[in-house]
Amino acid sequence: MQNQPLLLSSLLRHADRFHANTEIVSRTVEGPIHRYTYRDAARRARQLASALQRHGIGHSDRVATLAWNNYRHFEIEHGVTGMGAIWHAINPRLIPAQLIYIANHAEDKVLFFESSFLPLVEKLAPDLPTVGLFVLMADRAALPAVTSIPNLQCYEDFISAGDEGFAWPVFDELSASSLFYTSGTTGNPKGVLYSHRSDVLHCLSITGVYSMGLAATDTILPMTPMFHANGAWGFTHAAPMVGAKLVLPGPRMDAASIAELIEMEGVTVTAGVPTLYSKLLQHFEEQGRGAGTMQRLVVAGSAPAPSMIEGFERLGVSVNHVWGMTETSPCGTSTQPSRRTAKASPQEQLGRKTMQGTPVYGVDVKIADENGNEMPHDGKSSGRFMVRGPWVLSGYYRDEKPLLEDGWFNTGDLAVMDDDNYIQLTDRAKDVIKSGGEWISSIDVENLAAGCPGVAEAAVIGIPHPQWEERPLLIVVPSASEPATAKAVLSFLEGKIAKWWMPDDVIFVEALTYGATGKVQKMELRRRFAGHYTSQKSA
């Protein structure tokens, strides 16, 4: 057999050779829709790689981005990784102190950024000593007349100095490809360093029918940002691999803007978090025009509410709930039906879709006790959710602390697995509620509450209680039309959960705070409402 290394440059080369005229469509920061083809993208990515090389960027140097999902970001991703440097996509929603920490920890040498982040970069630049090149992702007309950023260049001028005949180098497939930092850990954000081999294997997995089932006939719109978990969950790898049309939404992530792109471009597949989908579903229902060309959606970040799944299925859109995290590249499981589930009742199938599904090939999982012993697959025995595989991290970037337990990575989730090998997270280890010595699943309660009429969003947290150690508090964002009352929500939950799981109170808020991954920031909620039950007792 031939021994050719698995390199990310092969993805765009393949699209250039065999899907050259397939479109990449972007909504830009400046507003207009940009269109070009894989052939155009491949040419410009080669130019970018050549320009970076001429600037002195070499193998394994870190090249950072502060950018939205658009064609220039796509070119940077493929140009940087293709030349053997490391693409470091930074989450711009982090606070400045974290942005500075991440860029310095990575020792980024270049920072590409959107014009919308110009004021932010002007504040950050003095504290980024390793960054020797700042590039504004725009043409020359967008360059500011006066700026404190040293030697600022514009993107179009920068790549014009590159050679479009640049040849992608061949190197070890175990070389690092990209670097993403996760804030889902304690302390400072931690870096997850992917390899070319792990990325290509992950991409092969997610394009398969058992996972996301992508094909050249698809038009893919990743709503999840490219700065999260491997380039929009790997979709910016997967689209060129299969030759699918790619639609990149830019900074406008409101439901009306997404629906407009779906209609304009004939989108068949989307990927995003439940909050985005809830708003998109509401928009579709208010408009009364259905979901257009949308055939299926991939949802992750947190479990979708049954009501959301049913809503999209009424519109003819199938829902695939996948589980993953930055540390797993990210995709690890999928709710594609098993042979048994396919024969189950519609209600049972709906319940399966809110679970985390079964492992995709390449990812091994176990539910383990504190000693690492595997728990029974009985759907009841809860334990630590452990994973391993060729696209699961072995340790955090520049962190010498041992991470794995006998080769397994502890996800930090608590879960059960049933006899059909379906996994269900029962809670994050740090979010589980212990009341009077008994455990309460915040996930189960909030998923049920989200299905109550008049509830737009729901979150459940455990807060101190003078008698029971902790008690659940239900926090609700009411629907704009016919908002629910506290009594109505609690009545809706009666009979669906154990009495001792019932929240002691319901608080209504205008909005919940979400992180970049689409997860509710429960730490902030716990801090905000920490004294709610204790103050009631003292009163």
3D structure, described in words:
There is one protein chain. The chain is α/β, with parallel strands linked by helices and about 550 residues long. The strands form 5 sheets. A 9-stranded mixed sheet has the order 2-1-11-10-12-13-14-15-16, with helices on both faces. It folds into 3 domains: about 300 residues, Rossmann fold, CATH 3.40.50; about 60 residues, Luciferase, domain 3; about 110 residues, 2-Layer Sandwich (GMP Synthetase, Chain A, domain 3). The protein has 17 helices and 25 strands. About 30% of the residues lie in helices and about 25% in strands.
User: Can you tell me the number of structural domains?
Assistant: 3
Share of β-strand residues: 15-25%
- Cα gyration radius (Å): 23 Å
Q: Counting H and I runs of at least 4 residues, what is the number of helices?
A: 17
User: Looking at this structure, what is the CATH superfamily of the largest domain?
Assistant: ANL, N-terminal domain
The separation of the N and C termini measures 77 Å
Per CATH, the class of the largest domain reads Alpha Beta
CATH fold-level topology of the largest domain? Rossmann fold
Q: What would you call the shape?
A: globular
How would a textbook summarize the main sheet? 9 strands, mixed
Helix content: 25-40%
Number of strands: 25
Strand order of the largest sheet: 2-1-11-10-12-13-14-15-16
* CATH 2nd-level architecture of the largest domain: 3-Layer(aba) Sandwich
Mean pLDDT: 93
Contiguous runs where pLDDT drops below 50 for at least 5 residues: none
